[in-house]
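Run: sequence + NAP -> complex structure.
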Amino acid sequence: MSKLYIITGTSKGIGLELLKFLCGNCNREVLSVNRSKINFESPYSYEFIHDLSIPWDSKSFISVLEEIFSRSRFTEIRFVHNAGTLGKIDPTLKLGVQSLRETFEINFFSGISIYYDLLKFTNRLDLKLGSVFVSSGAASKAYEGWAEYCSSKAALDMWVRVAFEEQHDNSTFALFLPGVVDTSMQEIIRATSKKSFPKVGFFQHLLSEKKLASPYVVAKRLGEYLLLDKLERNLLYLKY
Ligand SMILES: NC(=O)c1ccc[n+]([C@@H]2O[C@H](COP(=O)([O-])OP(=O)(O)OC[C@H]3O[C@@H](n4cnc5c(N)ncnc54)[C@H](OP(=O)(O)O)[C@@H]3O)[C@@H](O)[C@H]2O)c1
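>> structure
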């Protein structure tokens, strides 16, 4: 039974390693959603270009999906909303609504919009849909300076929890907690001033103590779950 994988944010970090694992190592067909074209050549790789900070373009996305389905037959779509941003890092009183909206668009609304397009598409063709949303410890822990990141990840986390409780037919949900991973997101965190992010020293210490997980190892954990014949019905948190 063949599956089409759809992953947001495969230009770097966990997303790029997941693309390399599924497409490069395991010859699975992957449609990446990125804001610009990436340098990854494979006959199994497709791309949809969209900046996720602006409202989602359902019409163009569905026509790309239809084109892919006109060439290959799939029985299931597995979707991973991995793209994410820390947004603006500063005390809440210094933040404005514009930047908060953009952060929510990337971390929350884009993933949910893609999910609803896929739900309609899979229902129409009677396919299964499995979705994994990449969450964060910041969804349930408040860090000073991270109002945008914490609140947008909390929204995503709670949306998935509600959907999960409802137990929909033909549609499974999981949240993935990657831990602290050695990607550009951590570089941004470590480069933030203590004034904007008082806990910066903790994250700098994690690097000097070699406590960061490799994006390859983390992506492999997620990739192995995505390769399962049947996704577990009762999985809420998949952790690295
Ligand atoms: N690294 C960690 O320690 C950690 C911990 C917990 C959770 N996470 C979560 O894991 C996921 C992956 O993070 P990562 O560490 O791999 O970060 P990363 O290396 O910074 O990669 C983030 C990905 O999201 C994409 N993205 C960001 N803004 C976008 C936009 N406007 N439109 C389209 N794509 C956009 C980036 O694309 P561009 O190249 O175009 O920017 C990139 O592909 C995120 O959801 C993050 O919140 C990470």
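>> summary
The mean pLDDT is 95. The radius of gyration is 18 Å.
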